[in-house]
Specification:
single chain; mainly alpha; 8 helices; 61% helix
Length: 171
């Protein structure tokens, strides 16, 4: 189920669909994959980051990272609450889900097939946010080797959606 939800969230993201639906799907995926990751010692790049001071981490995760997910999940309990929803973090949470799925699916852990859509999303993510890479030269070499360097637009969501759709699991 996590792979189907992850792939669907990626498809919706590149289709510029409603971010609330994407956020809900990704929240469910991370809710399944993070406990598995912890079991196998795989750290989620955002939730388990050691870059946030421990005294602020719990508050940051609750008040920033999970705020929208909790609102969407429990909105019927407090009908007066209004959420000012920002989508800035959404590409990062999708990346985290892709990262967890890829590592858990490896031959070292669950030996499950890789999600091509998730791998494609990770490539897109590193092209979109190259300043976050530790080794930009290595990433550039990879992109050159696969023929994407200089010929690929990270803002061409229509092409990305078609590529993601080709990896979509049909029931």
């Amino acid at each position: 189920a996590a792979e189907i939800q992850l792939n669907e969230a990626i498809f919706l993201f590149f289709d510029n669909a409603n971010p609330v639906s994407i956020e809900t799907l990704i929240g469910a995926v991370i809710g399944v994959l993070r406990p598995l990751g912890k079991k196998y010692g795989i750290k989620a790049p955002i939730h388990d980051s050691d870059k946030i001071k421990s005294e602020y981490k719990k508050e940051w995760i609750k008040d920033y990272l999970h705020k929208a997910q909790n609102f969407f999940k429990h909105a019927n309990n407090d009908k007066e609450t209004v959420l000012s929803y920002e989508t800035d973090l959404l590409p990062f949470t999708i990346f985290e889900a892709c990262y967890l799925f890829r590592h858990l699916s490896s031959d070292k852990y669950l030996k499950y097939r890789q999600s091509k859509a998730a791998i494609m999303y990770e490539v897109w993510f590193w092209l979109k946010y190259p300043e976050l890479l530790k080794d930009q030269a290595e990433a550039s070499k990879f992109l050159q080797d696969v023929g994407l360097l200089g010929s690929f637009s990270v803002d061409n969501y229509q092409a990305l959606r078609l590529l993601a759709d080709s990896y979509r699991i049909r029931l």
